Amino acid sequence: MKNRLIIVEGPQGTGKTSLTNYLRDNIASSNLYRLAGQKDKTLTGKKYSEIMYKALLDYLERMQIVPMTILFDRTFFSEEVYARLGYKEYSFSDIYEKLVKKLNDLNYDIYFLSLYLEDEKLYEARLARERHHNYQAFSIENSSNQQRVYKELGEEIIKKYNNIKVFRIAMDNFEKAYKEINEILDIEPKTKPVPTASIESNIEDKENNQKEIIQLQLI
């Protein structure tokens, strides 16, 4: 029986962190890896990314015999999306094609979960809680553009690679999305996802608290 390799990708604000934490908590013998890409947007950064992701695939190849599920919050797919959108000073496609081919050839059951929002206006609220990250500037426009390119990537993978199962998951409603993912991955959940309404309420509370702090500072 093959081990599972689950890759979660998607624009900022779709809920990757919440989902990967949920998967780690509800899949036995699972390891979660949360990756950050290279901030260097020059050809030097491209070389560093190539070294990092080749080493990552070599590691996955060695781990094939270890009985566990491996979870990723972002991989080299993010690098390809950002390069296609012009966030980088280079094309990453030459390296990307080699990486995805090697990934496809690994002896895993590979799931590519591509997250998106049907209502793109939700990005505004979601991104408010993620401004502490600094790999790529956050904006609704950026997330919408990333969503479009992630869809293109998924369609390309379906056509070219037979060992990578692609699922596009709408994350507007966490409860509904997690139910769909439980069915895809055959998960009997031990923990419940945080309701979407609670998350949005927490975001609003944080924003209101921040406004109060600013007002006090002004006084």
Written overview of the protein:
This protein is of the alpha/beta class. The protein has one domain: 3-Layer(aba) Sandwich (Rossmann fold), CATH 3.40.50.300. About 55% of the residues lie in helices and about 15% in strands. It contains eight helices and five strands, in the order βαβαβααβααβαα. It has helices spanning about 15-25, 45-60, 75-85, 95-105, 120-125, 140-160, 175-185, 195-219; strands at about 5-10, 30-35, 70-75, 110-115, 165-170. Strands 2-3-1-4-5 form a five-stranded parallel beta sheet, with helices on both faces. It is globular and about 45 Å long. The model is unreliable at about 210-219 (pLDDT under 50).
Could you name the key traits of this structure?
219 residues; alpha/beta; Rossmann fold; five-stranded parallel sheet; 8 helices; 15% strand; globular; disordered C terminus
In short:
With 219 residues, this protein is an alpha/beta fold. The chain has helices at residues 16-26, 43-62, 76-84, 93-105, 122-127, 140-160, 174-185, 196-218, and strands at 3-9, 30-34, 69-73, 108-116, 164-170. Strands 2-3-1-4-5 form a five-stranded parallel β-sheet, with helices on both faces.
The average pLDDT score comes to 88
Uncertain runs with pLDDT below 50, 5 residues or more?
210-219
Order of helices and strands: EHEHEHHEHHEHH
Any guess at the CATH architecture? 3-Layer(aba) Sandwich
> Which shape, going by the Cα principal axes?
globular
- Main beta sheet: 5 strands, parallel
Give the CATH H-level superfamily: P-loop containing nucleotide triphosphate hydrolases
Q: Which CATH class applies here?
A: Alpha Beta
In angstroms, what separates the terminal alpha carbons? 65 Å
Strand content: 15-25%
Q: In order across it, which strands form the biggest sheet?
A: 2-3-1-4-5
Gyration radius, in Å = 18 Å
The domain count comes to 1
Global structural class: alpha/beta
CATH topology: Rossmann fold
Helix tally? 8
